[in-house]
């Protein structure tokens, strides 16, 4: 525990130094990722393997591989390597789905369920307890604002990538919805329609733009 204190102190100083800026949010996201990284390593699995087990626990023990791959920013190769490592540990089986000889699913084994009860379920409960420190309206607002920021960041980074391509937009600018022209002083304004407003207030993973925990899915 003591060896984590310098990191926490340094992170807090970095956030304070960044003030109210995108950098402060970057530091906070990094700190959250570090917390999960340390926890996963303590469980004896990689970060990716931890989230695979997490999703399998939330789903009741089994999920099609296509759903696991589509739900995460990890590459398909990284996910497949994590699942193979879990299979080698005897925590996960990878059978074909019923009636298919092409599509597989990931299923927790008996040892996998015991591992999940010992490591994954307590982490889920810890997330929910931490999230409950926010009032319900604060939870909703946090999810809404982070979703809005993620959408805006996605649009702005896409604009930068487009500017770097031959014949792309002006560097650092985002095209306007009306004309696609460059306007340096006009940041993208992402939609706040029903899809954004409907994001569930389900825990820190949702706030970090990861897959949210379905309401009522946390084991009691």
In summary, what is this structure?
With 220 residues, this protein is mainly alpha-helical.
The biggest beta sheet is recorded as: 3 strands, antiparallel
Could you name the ranges where pLDDT drops below 50 across 5 or more consecutive residues? 1-7, 174-220
Number of helices: 9
Q: Rough shape?
A: globular
**Mean pLDDT over all positions:** 77
Radius of gyration: 20 Å
Helix content: 55-70%
- SS-derived structural category: mainly alpha
Question: N- to C-terminal separation?
Answer: 28 Å
- The main sheet orders its strands as 1-3-2
Along the chain, the helix and strand elements come as: HHHEHHEEHHEEHH
**Percent strand:** 5-15%
Question: What's the total count of β strands?
Answer: 5
What does this structure look like?
By secondary structure, the chain is mostly helical. 57% of the residues lie in helices and 6% in strands. The protein is built from 9 helices and 5 strands. The chain has helices at residues 5-18, 22-43, 47-58, 65-70, 76-88, 110-131, 136-164, 194-197, 204-207, and strands at residues 62-64, 92-93, 105-108, 174-175, 182-183. The protein has a 3-stranded antiparallel β-sheet with strand order 1-3-2. Helix 1 (5-18) packs antiparallel against helix 2 and helix 3 crosses helix 6. It is globular. Mean pLDDT is 77; it is low at 1-7 and 174-220.
